[in-house]
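For homework, think about our next protein:
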Amino acid sequence: MSNPPNPSPTRWFKALRRTRLGEPCMKTYPLECVELLKSARAAFQAGRTAKKSFRLAQLEALVRMLVEHEWDFVDALGRDLHKPRFETVVSELIPVKNEAFHAITNLRKWMLPQCMERDLTTTTLDDCLVLNEPLGVVFIIGAWCSPVQLCLVPLVGANAAGNCAIVNPPETTSYTAEILHRLIPSCLDNECFHVILAGMNDLAEIVELKFDHVFFIGNREEGSKVAQSAARMLTPVTLVLGGKNPCYVDKQCNVTTTAHRIAWARFHNAGQSVVAPDYILCHVAIKEQLVQALKCSLMQFYGSNPRGSRSFGRMVNAESFHRTRELLSKSGKVALGGQVVEAEKYIAPTILTEVVESDPIMLQDVFGPVLPILTMTDVDEAITFINKQEKPLCLYAYSSNNTIISRLMSETSSGSFCSNDSVLQSLMVGLPLGGVGASGMGSYHGHYSFDTFSHRKSCLLRSTRFECVTYLRYPPYDDHNLTLMTWASTLSQKSQGWCQIM
């Protein structure tokens, strides 16, 4: 499959960049976004998204869109990322379908009010409920590494929770952005769901238009700018940020299987993934075996000439190509790969050894087909190394020793953890995906997406009976009434389960 270079920002991106000459003090916003937000706000306030039947219909329409336009997505991602059809279907389309099917199956249960336990301040006639109500109009900012999945999985959650949404696909993957821009309004309700094609430089101003929630997937620098803009408007945010995801390989492991799973996770989509292993912390006793096994895995995956393989992608643009090549040239020793072809934005699957903590490739997110390997004397050294770094989005550990796995899971902090495999935890609808510390805040997937895009409203439904007791709280106050109120309203271990009298 040919991989033409990404076009410069096209007319529909340029049209969103408007300035008012002679008015430097006035903030300007993309007019299209203002109108789309107004339309979505009106649809939400009219109750269009409130009914379960509407939400289910939109989820089903989203699945039909993916099925009927599969080849459009395959073609667009092939142009943007040289992504093979296999990777597009498995890592982009199937995860979105699974999220939609999971939401369709469970939506009725998710929407039900949750009855809460009463305490001593309530009576048997009172009801304590938590209602899940939609937030309103949410803004979803997807990432270019998996632009279909990372735009539409959050959209599934926003839709299931009863919100209207405006989606901003990344301009970096412009062909895919154009497909989403065309299909979402035509396949889903075009008053409730919109797509805006804005560049990263526009996002801070767009966020200040005042949404009810902003969902961002991307790098830390851009996420920080979005969060600051949202904070000025008191808009809640979910941030799923990249990071250097460590992968510890213990001396007690199946080396061949470990190499296959790491190589697949690191080099699919040419290494451009927020959840891929970023570097290996390898037990010194197994390093040579692991390097040899990784070489064998890459030979099986892509052959002796990965450049000619239909299963290997390309860097998304010249900027990413140059950045990755620079990191590669200044770090460690090339054990395999290292070839580059600038005209194709091609960087061969590369393994680096003799890497040290101060190398440039250990100071930045790799986001390319380069895998650095550092050696560790034992798991204690690995845990110390991991805990010195910023908290990652994902942490991986390969070992047949359950004690080693347990220690890495409990003695480190990360957004997610997976043992003896990589990436799969990020595709499971039953597990939340989100960061901690520098790798983000909040989470999504399955029920967690529904929660992210919902407000849990506390509701106490009281009776007017028993006023003969509740009158004790009214003035004028006296010590006798205070004693009775303290006894009646204070929880204790013994009081749990008492019949409520208030």
Notes: The domain at 11-242+447-455 is CATH 3.40.605.10 (Aldehyde Dehydrogenase; Chain A, domain 1). Residues 1-28, 495-502 have pLDDT under 50 and may be disordered. The longest helix spans residues 85-111.
